[in-house]
């Protein structure tokens, strides 16, 4: 049987061949682009896996402003404008309880808000001076703040309310003595002091949870937020006593209390609006700390290691406390 070509003219044959060539080139080009797109997507995915996103670091410079809550509308706006975590940071910067933010309150507010108070520390992140001390507690009365250091590295800071003008907290190098999860005040039996940690035994002065009003207000003790009082309670070391409880074998964590609060002028944290470095440690305070550290080093040399080792061979879990 004679086969007939579908292309009855040379022109149709030429058109068919040309269309096949064009189609082939187009497919290859499309395949190439798909391959490139696939490569780009793969590379993007791999880069996300191989280079995890880092936590955003705070800016090198944080400035402050004063926010005056003159009306209930401004107070409501404040509470709606900031998250609960941010309001907590702002309250801590103003040395008050979050629930104490009220109408007519002047608050210092940073221009960049993070959820972590650590980013606003007035204390240095590293202090070479404290490098050889395993744990140190600094309490600045001038700026009403505490700082916890481990071998010179800042791990936590927060607001305090130290002794009022008539009953100031004694400055000096003190040491952690005894602690109690709940202690009754010797000033007023109605005052319950959670997570009490004494650092002046005979004077009955220590740190504990109690309301922070935004100024020094205590009867010599150092008031803290509940979470901060509990943290120090668990973190700091007590003294080591002999089996009779009458001899101190080793003092506890050093509490270094220093500085003087200025009762005559505006609170130092409100002054951050005009001087963002106003709350940082000053030379006079650093010199005081140097003297404390020198005294601490002299004390360490006096420890009778034989007595301490003998007592530590007893039950480490036993805690001796005085009330």
CATH topology of the largest domain: L,D-transpeptidase catalytic domain-like
Helical segment count: 6
Q: Briefly, what CATH class of the largest domain?
A: Mainly Beta
CATH superfamily of the largest domain: L,D-transpeptidase catalytic domain-like
Based on the structure given, which CATH architecture of the largest domain is correct?
A: Beta Barrel
Order of helices and strands: HEHHEEEEEEEEEHEEEHH
In total, the number of domains comes to 2
The proportion of residues in beta strands is 15-25%
User: What share of the residues lie within helices?
Assistant: 25-40%
Low-pLDDT stretches are: 30-54, 315-323
What class do helices, strands and sheet pairing give? alpha+beta
Mean pLDDT: 84
Q: Biggest sheet, in brief?
A: 5 strands, mixed
* Termini Cα gap: 120 Å
Describe this structure as you would to a colleague.
There is one protein chain. The protein is of the alpha+beta class. Helices cover 31% and strands 21% of the residues. It has helices at 10-50, 72-81, 84-93, 226-235, 283-302, 305-312, and strands at 64-69, 105-110, 136-140, 145-150, 153-159, 172-175, 179-184, 192-200, 205-209, 222-224, 240-241, 248-250, 254-258. The strands form 4 sheets. It has a 5-stranded mixed sheet, covered by helices on one side. A 4-stranded mixed sheet has the order 7-8-9-10. The protein is globular and about 65 Å long. Mean pLDDT is 84; it is low at 30-54 and 315-323.
Q: Secondary-structure blueprint of this entry?
A:
Elements: H1 10-50, E1 64-69, H2 72-81, H3 84-93, E2 105-110, E3 136-140, E4 145-150, E5 153-159, E6 172-175, E7 179-184, E8 192-200, E9 205-209, E10 222-224, H4 226-235, E11 240-241, E12 248-250, E13 254-258, H5 283-302, H6 305-312
Parallel strand pairs: 3-13, 9-10
Antiparallel strand pairs: 1-2, 3-4, 4-5, 6-13, 7-8, 8-9, 11-12
